[in-house]
């Protein structure tokens, strides 16, 4: 899991739980009907707003955020410099045998090995960037919708609780507990929206910007390798894509 994501979620949950335990018992904040209204209603409305396939893709993208390590721009620059070294030492055809988990980098190596025109590489990368942005935009939109629906269903649950409470006003002792249960749903909706759904949408947006930037690095590196097979020149050009303090981490 990305360290920032883990620390953010862990600290947020810890602070909320700490505040709860300092003021009372966690049992007071557990209400199954309220959870059913908020979680079930939020997911149901999202499935109405989006195709189920896109909702599943959004949750799959969320799991990738939590489980996969983010590749830095410096690592991408380093990979392109290594590819330049291989092509200079063994020839362009040797790039066909490059083993990498990055499908875009693999495709770029294949295009370089085929001595493709830089315009073709640019168009290929442009299509990949457009496709990636669309996929991420759908995931971001799904989680923004979840973040909007959750507080709304929290308020619906509160209204349901208030109606039930007002129907039992003849028993004054039941008003306090009933009011607490009514407000719990608003708490659930706000917590899910603020601590989970909105941060995930923001994370997807940040990943989109980062991955688009790295695709630009791959394109410029591929073009530079085709024009001049000098690893040093490849590094000098691609190092402009990363911050000066990160350049020292690139092995060359």
From TrEMBL:
GO terms for biological process: bacterial-type flagellum-dependent swarming motility; chemotaxis; protein transport. The keyword Cell membrane applies. Residues 99-215 form the MotA/TolQ/ExbB proton channel domain. It comes from the Bacteria. Coiled coil: none annotated. It is a multi-pass membrane protein. The chain crosses the membrane at residues 34-52, 141-166, 178-198. It is found in: Cell membrane; Membrane. The keyword Manganese does not apply. Residues 8-88 form the Motility protein A N-terminal domain. GO terms for cellular component: plasma membrane. Keywords: Cell membrane, Flagellar rotation, Membrane, Protein transport, Transmembrane, Transmembrane helix, Transport. InterPro entries: MotA-like, MotA_ExbB_proton_chnl, MotA_N. Belongs to the exbB/tolQ family. This is Motility protein A. The lineage of its organism: Bacteria, Pseudomonadati, Thermodesulfobacteriota, Desulfovibrionia, Desulfovibrionales.
């Amino acid at each position: 899991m990305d360290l920032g994501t883990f620390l953010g979620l862990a600290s947020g949950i810890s602070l909320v739980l700490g505040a709860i335990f300092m003021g009372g018992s966690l049992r007071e904040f557990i209400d199954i009907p309220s959870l059913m209204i908020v979680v079930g209603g939020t997911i149901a409305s999202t499935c109405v707003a989006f195709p189920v396939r896109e909702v599943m893709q959004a949750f799959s993208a969320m799991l990738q955020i939590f489980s996969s390590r983010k590749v830095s721009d410096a690592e991408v620059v380093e990979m392109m410099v290594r590819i330049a070294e291989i092509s200079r030492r063994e020839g362009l055809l040797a790039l066909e045998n490059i083993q990498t988990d990055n499908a875009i980098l693999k495709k770029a190596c294949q295009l370089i090995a085929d001595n493709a025109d830089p315009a073709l590489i640019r168009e290929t990368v442009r299509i990949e960037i457009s496709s990636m942005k669309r996929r991420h935009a759908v995931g971001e939109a799904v989680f923004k919708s979840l973040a909007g629906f959750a507080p709304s269903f929290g308020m619906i649950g509160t209204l349901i609780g208030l109606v039930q409470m007002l129907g039992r006003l003849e028993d004054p002792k039941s008003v306090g507990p009933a009011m607490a249960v009514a407000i719990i749903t608003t708490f659930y909706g706000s917590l899910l929206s603020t601590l989970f759904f909105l941060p995930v949408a923001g994370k997807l947006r940040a990943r989109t910007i980062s991955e688009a930037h790295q695709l630009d690095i791959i394109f410029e590196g591929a073009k530079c390798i085709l024009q001049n097979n000098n690893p040093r020149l490849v590094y000098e050009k691609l190092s402009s894509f990363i911050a000066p303090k990160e350049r020292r981490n690139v092995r060359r």
